[in-house]
Amino acid sequence: MSSRTTTEIAFGAAAEASRPRNAGFALAMNRALIEKAKLWLSRLLTLAIGLVFWHLATKYRLDAYIRFENVPSPKQVGAALWTHLGDPRFYVHIGVSLRRILTGYVLATLLGIGIGLAMGRSWLARSLIDPYIEFLRPIPAVGWIPLAILMWPTEESSIVYITFLGALFPIVLNTVHGVEQTPEVLVRAARSLGASRAQIFIHIVIPAALPSIATGLAIGMGVSWFSLLAGEIISGQYGIGYFTWSAYSLINYPDIVVGMLAIGVLGAFSTWAVRALLFPLLAWQKASR
Amino acid sequence: MLERLIQCPRVAQPPPLTTGSAAPQGEVSIEKVDVVFGQGNEAHAAVTDITIHIAAGEFVCLLGPSGCGKSTLLNSIAGFVKPTRGHVLIDGQPVDGPGPGQGMVFQQYSLFPWKTVIDNVAFGPRMHGRSRAEARSLAGEYLDLVGLSNVAKRYPATLSGGMQQRVGIARALVNQPRLLVMDEPFGALDAQTRAIMQENLLHIWSRIGTTVVFVTHDIDEAVFMADRVLVMSAGPGRIIADIAIELSRPRHRDITTEDAFIHIKRQCLDIINVESRKAFERQNY
What we know:
CATH architecture of the largest domain in chain B: 3-Layer(aba) Sandwich
Number of helices of chain A: 11
Strand content of chain B: 15-25%
Order of helices and strands of chain A: HHEEHHHHHHHHH
Radius of gyration of chain A: 26 Å
Largest interface: A-B, 34 and 43 residues
Number of domains of chain B: 2
Low-confidence stretches of chain A: 1-20
Radius of gyration of chain B: 19 Å
Largest sheet of chain A: 2 strands, antiparallel
Oligomer: heterodimer
Distance between the termini of chain B: 35 Å
Helix content of chain A: over 70%
CATH class of the largest domain in chain A: Mainly Alpha
Strand order of the largest sheet of chain B: 6-7-8-3-9-10
Structural class of chain A: mainly alpha
CATH superfamily of the largest domain in chain A: MetI-like
Strand order of the largest sheet of chain A: 1-2
Mean pLDDT of chain B: 87
CATH superfamily of the largest domain in chain B: P-loop containing nucleotide triphosphate hydrolases
CATH class of the largest domain in chain B: Alpha Beta
Distance between the termini of chain A: 18 Å
Mean pLDDT of chain A: 89
Shape of chain A: flat
């Protein structure tokens, strides 16, 4: 409060004192470093505890309703992972899955944001599209698999379609929501500054909707992986979902966990990539906090 | 009118700004304006039978209680509201929607949060096809005018309320409007900041000389700032008094405790009391 008043008074004279750096600064830095180290240590510790439990449960074939009898041990999984990491075929599975995700997700992003913006801005677009959205949205992408196989000419296209569909709805809905959240006063301000309808759409509506669109894109990425795996498990000869499921069919249990680990890493990586790509566009939000 | 202008000459300072116009502009004529919202049984008049003439370069305050229709009247000048009857003319031209000619300053939170301060101010020129560099250099001049060059690269949410409003003023002024319309721009600020902002605005106005229509419900604010105070009453909104404020300029905070100021304020209060009682009785017949 007092600093604000001072700044207000200093109006006219160019003035805002640079942030004071006192002697405690270095100390505070040190403390922050220690806090960070503590955080990472505790994270590693809980992971280690989990690993030890897994090891013991498989070693002593724990059977307490959940059976660890057929669960591969961490050591077996580690060995299998090591082998696969040196095997080009493993990367073919990963590459195929990534390509499907990329195709389906990019299409869903383009179409989803497009549809969402149109629905949020135009009454006509909304009344035309809304019934379809409301009717189709409750059907999970997985439910589409049989029909998709019948409809699409190739297995590949049907899996990409499922992946696309999974991402589409969260992106559309969050985009519509974002457009609706545009503060009216900003639109009025832009009009009074001489912006045309198209300029308002580009410079006001889209940036205002962006945080919500980003949420839709992050959720969409998750759902899109989920749908992809279901698609690959049910049909297909390649992909990390197929790899995981065929390990089960072939009674090669360590590979199940290798597949799961790969899925986890890929999923986390793709969500991180979405965030990293969107970050520059949302930097203003961070600065505003 | 002329007499009043002679009595309180504005400080003549050569404007160092990139202004184009030479002839005085921003003459506002409001002729028999009614604004009715809703239709049929739901219809209610927000303002009725408003006739005002504002000379170019005049600083006019619309003073009235909340809900008296002063914002509606302001919005009809800004072009956001179309009068149901009557005309609003600026320099003889009917107002046809909002635009940069009527620079608008809102109550609060009207800066674009995703744009830096300089790009907020550069918005108008950018929309009119100026290059980014041109728009920014123009914006820089107006940030200088409101004393905020030092925060040009910050985002609005990191500024205090008073600073945000100064950015809002710069953003409206960069378009070189004929008229500045301000809707309780300092209403959300604390008392000290508000007092400083009032002086700032008068200082800025003394350099650019545009017509200002300023809505407020604070009588001290109106008397301190205006050449002329138009008092409105509610239900439906009408002008009940038109008071010339004959205090010399430049005005500083000190005058608010001087006899002349208190005298004028008392006169205003008397007129407002008498007129609002009349209006109240009219309503109850």
